[in-house]
């Protein structure tokens, strides 16, 4: 449920950015509905990702220092408070409203960032080696339901408001097309993200610390045995002498920035950081700006043909359809097949297919923008989401939680995830530049469209190809215990060099 909340909070902003432009940046007498200036749009979409990057590094490090459980509740409460605060953004002018919104979404992202390394590490340390990949992937798969939930809620809410406060299209009445009640819609959508987080808080407080952290890092075998007895509902015998022997015999006291760490895990960390970085450039570009791509090809009507609330409805409907038909199934294909196929094969397959579909959309782009081929474009575009999730979007989350030693596991996962969010920031801000419309006559309310989208798709295809190459640095952890992968169970070299 933490990841359900994470995805809802991160991606619901893309449902309401056009509405924010209509409400706060409309120029009286303009022939077009108001739109967010490019720099404001990039800030509103990207500031939560900046916060997420910072949170992944900070809470990943803190999770190894204080324990997974102690930090886990803090991140959730931060998400609750900042979700509500985002919907209460205030100010006497548009600039002030957007500034307070960006401030609260930064701290919302900071809390979300902590969920990445902690959720992955907790699940990996509770699981057995035969089904570990599926369990960690299932945690991450809730992101798909979060995106879907955001779209469904936006559809329901906008339908209710549109029926009650029926407004004409912008073409009919430029002023009346954005009713005052529209200001409630975007605020409610953002604030509802706090609900699943609040409902989850009780169970997080009842969750015991992972036995691997308690035994291998805190070096308390008695407490680890007691915790596991509660989880498994069976008596577990404490073996402090064996734990002491493992900890002493592993010769595993080197630091994160030491030559020994670089020798043992440097290649693996390079693999996890580079693939996650490249994946998120493509994935977040597609997610945050798919409404602009659909507008460019004509799948979503021009803004001037709808009122503000109905525009939210059409955007949410398009994104929900993509999530339902490709995003969610892709995640669960990974859940069911990752322990059979292995992480390496799924990641290689995903990157390869994303590369193929991106180029298939980009090079004949002028063909796809013709109205009779719009549905073909949407189907192809949906398949890139499917193979992102039945591929690197899931495996980049799973692998860093399995291949590093317990006392550095959360930190290394946080570094890998932060590298991904750096890619997401590049995607959120870079796509806005790459997709700039070069034909003003085709622009829809100032949003990226036309020939610029083709350039962006080509760049994303190249990025996915580079991700395919970097996957060769990633080790395979299928069927191996965490201690076997990290070399903690005996005086042996870790298996992270094997592919």
TrEMBL record:
GO biological process terms held by the UniProt record: phosphate ion transport
Annotated TM spans: 40-59, 71-90, 96-114, 135-161, 184-203, 348-369, 375-399, 411-435, 455-475
GO MF annotation: an example: phosphate transmembrane transporter activity
Ranges where the Major facilitator superfamily (MFS) profile domain occurs: 1-479
Subcellular location: Membrane
Gene3D superfamilies in the record: MFS general substrate transporter like domains
InterPro entries attached to this UniProt entry: MFS_dom, MFS_sugar_transport-like, MFS_trans_sf, Phos_permease
Record carries keyword Transcription: no
UniProt entry keywords in alphabetical sequence: Membrane, Phosphate transport, Symport, Transmembrane, Transmembrane helix, Transport
Membrane topology: Multi-pass membrane protein
Chemical reaction(s) catalysed: phosphate(in) + H(+)(in) = phosphate(out) + H(+)(out)
Domain of life: Eukaryota
Record carries keyword Transmembrane helix: yes
GO cellular component: membrane
One Pfam entry name: Sugar_tr
NCBIfam families named in the record: 2A0109
Family: Belongs to the major facilitator superfamily. Phosphate:H(+) symporter (TC 2.A.1.9) family.
Protein name: Major facilitator superfamily (MFS) profile domain-containing protein
Organism of derivation: Lactuca virosa
């Amino acid at each position: 449920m933490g990841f359900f909340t994470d995805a809802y909070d991160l991606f619901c902003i893309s449902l309401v950015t056009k509405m924010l432009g209509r409400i706060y940046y409309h120029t009286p007498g303009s022939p077009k509905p108001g739109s967010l200036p490019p720099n404001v749009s990039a800030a509103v979409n990207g500031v939560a990702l900046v916060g997420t990057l910072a949170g992944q590094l900070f809470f990943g490090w803190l999770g190894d220092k204080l324990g997974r459980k102690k930090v886990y509740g803090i991140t959730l409460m931060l998400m609750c408070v900042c979700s509500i605060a985002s919907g209460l953004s205030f100010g006497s002018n548009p600039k002030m409203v957007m500034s307070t919104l960006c401030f609260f979404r930064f701290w919302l992202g900071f809390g979300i960032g902590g969920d990445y390394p902690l959720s992955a590490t907790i699940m990996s340390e509770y699981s057995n080696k035969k089904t570990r990949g599926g369990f960690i992937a299932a945690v991450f798969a809730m992101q798909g339901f979060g995106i879907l939930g955001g779209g469904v809620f936006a559809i329901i809410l906008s339908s209710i408001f549109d029926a009650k406060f029926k407004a004409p299209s912008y073409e009919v009445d430029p002023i009346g097309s954005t009713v005052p009640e529209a200001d409630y819609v975007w605020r409610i959508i953002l604030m509802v993200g706090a609900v699943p987080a609040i409902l989850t808080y009780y169970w997080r407080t009842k969750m015991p610390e992972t036995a691997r952290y308690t035994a291998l890092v805190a070096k308390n075998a008695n407490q680890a045995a007691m915790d596991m007895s509660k989880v498994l509902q069976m008596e577990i015998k404490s073996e402090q002498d064996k734990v002491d022997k493992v900890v002493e015999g592993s010769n595993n006291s080197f630091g994160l920035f030491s030559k020994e760490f670089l020798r043992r895990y440097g290649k693996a960390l390079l693999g996890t950081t580079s693939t996650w970085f490249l994946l998120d450039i493509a994935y977040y570009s597609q997610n945050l700006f798919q409404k602009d791509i659909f507008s460019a090809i004509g799948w979503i009507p021009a803004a001037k043909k709808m009122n503000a609330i109905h525009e939210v409805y059409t955007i949410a409907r398009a994104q929900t359809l993509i999530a339902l038909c490709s995003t969610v199934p892709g995640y669960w294909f990974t859940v069911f097949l990752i322990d059979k196929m292995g992480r390496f094969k799924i990641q290689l397959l995903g990157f390869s297919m994303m590369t193929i579909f991106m180029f298939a959309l980009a090079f004949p782009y002028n063909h796809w923008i013709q109205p009779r081929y719009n549905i073909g474009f949407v189907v192809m575009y949906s398949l890139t989401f499917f193979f992102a999730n039945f591929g690197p979007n899931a495996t980049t989350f799973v692998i860093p939680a399995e291949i590093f030693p317990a006392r550095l596991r959360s930190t290394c996962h946080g570094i890998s995830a932060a590298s991904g969010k750096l890619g997401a920031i590049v995607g959120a801000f870079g796509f806005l530049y790459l997709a700039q419309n070069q034909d003003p006559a085709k622009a829809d309310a100032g949003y990226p469209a036309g020939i610029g989208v083709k350039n962006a798709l080509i760049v994303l295809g190249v990025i996915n190809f580079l991700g395919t190459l970097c996957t060769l640095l990633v080790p395979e952890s299928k069927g191996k215990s965490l201690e076997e992968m990290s070399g903690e169970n005996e005086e042996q070299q870790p298996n992270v060099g094997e592919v």
